[in-house]
Amino acid sequence: MTPLSPAVCMCSPPRPLPGPLGVPSVQPWRVREAPFPCLGSAALYRSSLGSSGWLVKDIPNGHSKPREGGRGGGVDWWSTHLPRCTGAGGQRGSVRRGLATGTAGPTDRGLMEELLGLREGSSGDPVTLQELWGPCPRIRRGIRAGLEWLKQKLFRVGEDWYFLMTLGVLMALISYAMNFAISRVVRAHKWLYREIGDSHLLRYLSWTVYPVALVSFSSGFSQSITPFSGGSGIPELKTILSGVVLEDYLDIKNFGAKVVGLSCTLAAGSTIFLGKVGPFVHLSVMIAAYLGRVRTKTIGEPGNKSKQNEMLVAGAAVGVATVFAAPFSGVLFSIEVMSSHFSVWDYWRGFFAATCGAFTFRLLSVFNSEEETITCLFKTSFPVDIPYDLPEIFFFVALGAICGVLSCAYLFCQRTFLAFVKTNWFFSKLLATSKPLYSALAALVLASITYPPGVGRFIASRLSMGEHLDSLFDNKSWALMTRNSSPPWPREPDPQNLWLEWYQPEFTIFGTLAFFLVMKFWMLILATTIPMPAGYFMPIFILGAAIGRLLGEALSVAFPEGIVAGGVTNRIVPGAYALAGAAAFSGAVTHTISTALLAFELTGQIVHALPVLMAVLAANAIAQSCQPSFYDGTIIVKKLPYLPWIRGRKISSHRVTVEHFMNCAITTLAKDTPLEEVVKVVTSTDVAEYPLVESTESQILVGILRRAQLVQALQAESPSWAPGQPRCLQDVLAGGCPTEPVTLQLSPETSLHQAHHLFELLNLQLLFVTSRGRAVGSVSWAEMKKAISNLTNPPAPK
Q1: How many other C-beta atoms are found inside a 10 Å radius of the C-beta of residue 286?
Q2: Averaging pLDDT over each range in 29-43, 127-141, 772-786, which range is the top one?
Q3: Nearest-5° Cα angle at 58, 54 to 63
Q4: 176, 237, 282, 749 from 312: Cα distances, Å
Q5: Is 774 strand, coil or helix?
Q6: What is the spatial distance between Cα 59 and Cα 4, in angstroms, rounded to a whole number?
Q7: With contact defined as beta carbons under 8 Å apart, do 538 and 527 qualify?
Q8: How far apart are CA 620 and CA 401, in angstroms?
Q9: Does an H or E element contain 104, and which?
Q10: Which pTM value belongs to this model?
Q11: Which residue ranges run through the membrane (predicted)?
Q12: How confident is the model at residue 56 (pLDDT cuts 50, 70, 90)?
């Protein structure tokens, strides 16, 4: 940008100027000086557009209308910058002549605000005169530049937050859409059961055929598309995050099968008594893996294993958060369940994605007029001033101990029955040949037991899983309410008095709660064997709430006036014990502490934070010392390649070193090994990698040879072999066979705990053991699991 030389205003005819291709171009009309009062000291510039010509910013004279944009036309300068430029006589030409001759009068000063000018000595960027005279132009330009920089940073495709927000919002939409469709199907089932008449046969068929058909379709449809869609999905995700590659488990084609199958499972209602959490975590991780691949292709970077794990961990947090609208417990639960080691770098990713998902999930309820504002899922009305008395802490801890013992019994029975189903010849054959038939038979048994006019009336079978929790969290004592009265069992559930579903005059509240626990205990174990997408956390949560409610009702009867402490009497709140029982039992079964926070986020009550947390800790202390978690037990039964924890933390366990359990029979390849022997080793073994040593005599470990790459190099080398000419492995390596450096190795004196930490932290599969540089053995998952098993269950002495 260069200023034009000031001169006397004059009009000169256009003269041809040589263009870039020798074609004459017309020089635009220009004003050499603009002595206008309204322009002040502003000068007029013209700017270059590179090879496209000159951009006219001059004021033309009245003989022609130059066009903005240089050669080849453009936008009419007058119609663009002087839309209201009419002279005193109403003619636009008079103003143009006045501008060209410098005789513009006062009546034309208001029109000058439409002109483009530049401050003298500026960089050359055009601004309007109104902006030029505005206050603080430098500050405003700085703000605009800052906003532009922020826009470029925030909306740069490929940044993490962009995909994390997409993941959270997308999973919230899917979760809400599934809930919306499932509620309509469940409502249709209730309407059919209510309107079909008084015939017991028809009512029984309407109650049982509906869930049987849905469950058999869920099992058949999902298993026909992919066998990975059944079950919870969390055990397999734990295996993947530990470094094991499960082919096609996170493929996007499994998404449709899982969504349809899970929707049918949940539409079966409380007759099957299964939840949503586990499969939805699997769905969220599948979407996270897919978005990770899209991100890699979008920004064009190579595949990064650590980056993929970051997206998977965030996906697990989103899965929990969009089911319960609980971002804090969603992140912590995913960390406790999924990872043995967690990177703090992934912390903000999980919280950001989970918050976006939980907020969108609850916002959709407000938009659909289901809620007036964003609230918790299960509303409670516990007293806030004095929620519990100090002596009640003992009862909460006792409740945690009870939940811990019962969780050990449940975990043992569930794992034993699941192993029995897989090993029994009849059930294993039925599951191998006809999974829908097995699912239909199991669903028929469960639906028949929950038939309301029969046994179902004693286990509150007409309530949905959400209504179960709403009723169990009631802060009133049902035992005291029915002590002197006997309300009738309602013909239909009353939304305002759901607790009546738990009362039967011949059973009382205690009998109904105890019978519910006994029946649901084995019914849930049976339901976990059905090969269909289903979650098992919510049923366990409800079982724990029933345990806590039973203890709370017993305490309310034992202390009908409340507990006196410090001269003040405080009444027992059975709903608080139900809340603590739900958190303690579910935490003990899953070996997590975050269930306490989940209970607070679900109910919006944090006044019982201390007793609930103490109950969860007591339950976990018992469960973790006796049984593996629900997900670890499933890994054991399914025989998934997963490295277990070292549960025996005795001092003697630290004396176990790698030398005691390493594999000493390793096959090494030396650089001076003849090719004939190399071929024999490759064809007689099936290991994935070989340790490369310097020589047969020294056995100094210098690298690692991949079997697949070595086979390719040998095949490429075969035609060039000359008979009688000795060749060795060094020739193949010199020909381009790639080797990998040994970046990590173990010593025979390394302890079992140190080796275990390395395998877990770095997701390793195999490490070589060296002594003074010499390769003496190897340690893989097989040796590690055997050593840990010997520590936990030492073999009997011979």
Answers
A1: 24
A2: 772-786
A3: 105
A4: 21, 9, 10, 36
A5: strand
A6: 12
A7: no
A8: 9
A9: none
A10: 0.75
A11: 161-181, 201-221, 272-291, 312-335, 393-413, 437-460, 507-527, 534-552, 572-599, 606-623
A12: very low
Residue pair 551/577 in contact by the 8 Å Cβ criterion: yes
DSSP strand pairing (45-48 vs 24-26): unpaired
Task: State the Cα–Cα distance between residues 447 and 272, nearest whole angstrom.
Answer: 7
Nearest of 278, 269, 181 to residue 230 by alpha carbon: 278
Q: Would you say 662 and 777 are in contact if contact means Cβ atoms under 8 Å apart?
A: yes
Asked if residue 583 lies in contact with residue 590, where contact means CB atoms within 8 angstroms, the answer is no
The tokens describing 776, both together, are 């003496």
Between CA 516 and CA 536 the distance in angstroms is 17
Q: Is 215 helix (H, G, I), strand (E, B) or coil?
A: helix
DSSP state of 776: E
Question: Higher model confidence: residue 667 or residue 540?
Answer: 540
pLDDT band at 394 (very low <50, low <70, confident <90, very high): very high
Q: Which long-range contacts (CB under 8 A, 24 or more apart) does 566-574 make?
A: 568/386, 570/386, 570/388, 570/389, 571/477, 572/392, 572/477, 573/382, 573/383, 573/387, 573/388, 573/475, 574/474, 574/475, 574/476, 574/477, 574/478, 574/549
The C-alpha atoms of residue 568 and residue 288 are separated, in whole angstroms, by 54
Instruction: For residues 67 and 57, give the distance between their C-alpha atoms in angstroms, rounded to a whole number.
Output: 10
Q: Which residues contact 555 (CB under 8 A, 6 or more apart)?
A: 395, 572, 574, 577
CA-CA distance, 624 to 400, in Å (whole number)? 13
Return the SS3 of 741. Answer: coil
List, for residues 650-676, the tens digit of each pLDDT value.
656 678 888 888 988 888 888 888 888
* 88, 389, 577 from 398: Cα distances, Å: 96, 15, 11
pLDDT of residue 588: 95
Q: How far apart are CA 624 and CA 587, in angstroms?
A: 10
- Contact yes or no for 208/442 (Cβ under 8 A): no
Give whichever of 300-314, 510-524, 599-613 has the largest mean pLDDT: 510-524
Give dist(CA 735, CA 572) in Å, integer: 82
- Of 325-329, 495-499, 733-737, the one with minimum mean pLDDT is 733-737
| CA pair distance 353, 349, nearest whole angstrom | 6
- For the ranges 39-53, 86-100, 498-512, 588-602, the lowest mean pLDDT is seen at 39-53
Report the run of H or E that residue 333 belongs to, with start and end.
helix 327-338
Q: Strand 689-693 to strand 669-670: parallel, antiparallel, or no bridges (unpaired)?
A: parallel
CA distance 345 to 337: 18
Structure tokens at 468: 């179960």
Could you tell me the two tokens for 473? Answer: 């969290």
pLDDT confidence tier of residue 581, bands split at 50, 70 and 90? very high
Residue range 368-379, pLDDT digits in tens: 877 767 777 788
